Amino acid sequence: MNDDVKQAPPRLELNGPVPDFEAETTHGPLRLYDWNRDKWVILFSHPADFTPVCTTEFMAFAGLQEELAKRNVALLGNSIDSVYSHIAWVRSIKANWDVDIEFPIIADLDMNVAHLYGMLHEPSAKTAAVRTVFVIDPQRKLRAMIYYPLNVGRNFDEILRVIDALQTADEHGVACPADWRPGEPVIVPPPSTVQAAAKRVADESVQVTDWYFAKKNL
Question: Are residues 121 and 107 in the same domain?
Fold first, then answer.
């Protein structure tokens, strides 16, 4: 095998394991599988430091830090910039907007993490990552992934909603309907036998519309 041929990155699949990596960050060296092992992780990429849309996004992530901590979620940023650029940018955000960026940012100059996680989309840019969001559970399985273009910032209400929905679904063995928010009814998994379907229709403990469609309050 030719050593000059770069191996294709692993395919990222929902509910499958995410690739491990080691990297330098603004908080020092980090190995993903060892970092905050008991926590959910949001790994996200941004195109470049000292750019306007990315600056608004970093301040938005900073604004979510307290809510994410309540949900046992750690933030981890990534871009193809040096650790010195990251440090300078974090200090600029503090100086100009008085916002503290308390989560680590990966210095991905060799593009290792960007390639591993499919953050580089060449029709958009060859040396800048698109805006990705990967939700990783404590078992280091990929639970959600969201992509945004270079010129459109992320919806942070949706990122928090996805975390709430995933954690609710895991805890209660349910599903969450479209536009679901915490406190709203959830979907009860549909029955898989004729006998269970008949029992479901007669079940007064859930809100049954039809045998396959039922909701309940938690």
Answer: yes
pTM: 0.92
Q: Are 119 and 129 in contact (CB under 8 A)?
A: yes
Clarify whether residues 86 and 166 are in a common domain. yes
Instruction: Say yes or no: 98 and 128 in one domain.
Output: yes
> What's the CATH number where 199 sits?
3.30.1020.10
Q: Is 127 left (phi over 0), alpha (psi -120 to 50) or beta?
A: alpha
**Which one is catalytic: 54, 80, 114, 188?**
54
Residue 149 shares a structural domain with residue 203: no
What digits encode the pLDDT tens for the residues 86-138? Answer: 999 999 999 999 999 999 999 999 999 999 999 999 999 988 999 999 999 99
Report residue 114 as tokens: 């960007």
82 within a domain of the structure (yes/no): yes
Q: Give the per-residue pLDDT at 7.
A: 63
The answer to whether residue 8 sits within a structural domain is: no
Say what the pLDDT of residue 58 is: 97
Domain residues for the domain of 128 are 22-172
Structure tokens at 120: 């580089």
Q: CB neighbours of 52 closer than 8 A, spacing ≥ 6?
A: none
* Annotation says 54 is catalytic: yes
Q: Is 71 left (phi over 0), alpha (psi -120 to 50) or beta?
A: alpha
Q: What does the DSSP assignment read for 59-88?
A: HHHHHHHHHHHHTTEEEEEEESS-HHHHHH
